[in-house]
Amino acid sequence: MSRPLRIVADGNVLPALREALAGGPAVLPRPRASIDLGGSAAIDHVDAALAPPSDVPAMVDDPVALVVETSGSTGDSKRVALSARALLASASAADARIGGPGQWLLCLPEHYIAGVNVLARSIVAGTEPVRMEGTHFDVDRFMVAAAALEHERRYVSLVPVQLARLLDDERAHESLAAFEAVLVGGQATPARLVDRAHALGIRLVRTYGASETSGGCIYDGRPLDGVDVRAVDGELWISGPTLAEGYLDDSALTADRFIGGWYRTGDTGDVVDGIVRVTGRLDDVIISGGLKVSLGAVERVVRSLPGLETAVVVRAAHAEWGEVPVVIAERESSLAEVRAAVEAVEGPAGRPHRLVVVERMPLLPSGKPDRREAQRLAAGESS
């Protein structure tokens, strides 16, 4: 079922989303800079080129309420169509898992699913989210915003690089410990960050999911109520009430990724005794010297080393080996020690060829590493 679509800029998504969840026009949040505002904070109109087409297969019998664009960190951006029922099911299941409705601190862009979820959960809870000021994450602004929260149950959703910067600043520790739960997701959270947070008494909840699952649907390895996960030929598939309707204007991709009520994540992993373990991406395997190397597996080892918790491992061409892993990091480290640590776990083929130190890790607006830019850095290119 198609419905009108309203394009809304960051900072003004909350009232439009509230209306969409109540049956009003669907919402497409966009970065403020990408919209010609013409003196207005939102563009409220029906655009035939953007309206959800009738050939988007429905996973549930509900009209689309939200269209959210994926980050495009490793591939082309896609527009994911989500129903009100999926978003509300996600909010309800998350509340049940983390301690009940409360007040949220918004530190993530509203045009990505993690930011939208903060707004949706605030709507369901009947509370007003507090926005961190500024367009980039800043520890001081985080502390000011956290101090403005008034509810007895306080929540925040972060990505690992934000958590790392807060843990590196002792002034933020008390603020973090005051939250009922600190959700961290968007990418794998290094074990060292988890251990540091727990040692400070911070209730950290690691989340896993995608825009196609209304955001995080697996908390600390356990699926939320109603969500089912299975491994099919090593790939994680997810089903449940939080699934998207499909992709806007891409029925072929929808049919490929959504099969019989299941979403094919493209992530590798397994499910043992109800615990989901994500091991990497199907497309992150390179052939180095004739041997398969998982960049995700190499990255997990690298991130376990001191000072490299936010490092990124990407591929680079090599005249002799074909392709090799390259580490992009914000801090100097001994390449020999990094290579030895990786070899001990992943074998000689997994050893990073070099370590590139950057002043600041390239990030997407969502806070995730910009892996395409990181790959250009590994190749010695500039954007």
From TrEMBL:
<protein>
    <submittedName>
        <fullName>AMP-binding protein</fullName>
    </submittedName>
</protein>
<feature type="region of interest" description="Disordered">
    <location>
        <begin position="362"/>
        <end position="383"/>
    </location>
</feature>
<dbReference type="Pfam" id="PF13193">
    <property type="entry name" value="AMP-binding_C"/>
</dbReference>
<dbReference type="InterPro" id="IPR025110">
    <property type="entry name" value="AMP-bd_C"/>
</dbReference>
<dbReference type="InterPro" id="IPR050237">
    <property type="entry name" value="ATP-dep_AMP-bd_enzyme"/>
</dbReference>
<dbReference type="InterPro" id="IPR045851">
    <property type="entry name" value="AMP-bd_C_sf"/>
</dbReference>
<feature type="domain" description="AMP-binding enzyme C-terminal">
    <location>
        <begin position="298"/>
        <end position="368"/>
    </location>
</feature>
<feature type="domain" description="AMP-dependent synthetase/ligase">
    <location>
        <begin position="53"/>
        <end position="248"/>
    </location>
</feature>
<dbReference type="Pfam" id="PF00501">
    <property type="entry name" value="AMP-binding"/>
</dbReference>
<dbReference type="InterPro" id="IPR000873">
    <property type="entry name" value="AMP-dep_synth/lig_dom"/>
</dbReference>
<dbReference type="InterPro" id="IPR042099">
    <property type="entry name" value="ANL_N_sf"/>
</dbReference>
<dbReference type="GO" id="GO:0016878">
    <property type="term" value="F:acid-thiol ligase activity"/>
</dbReference>
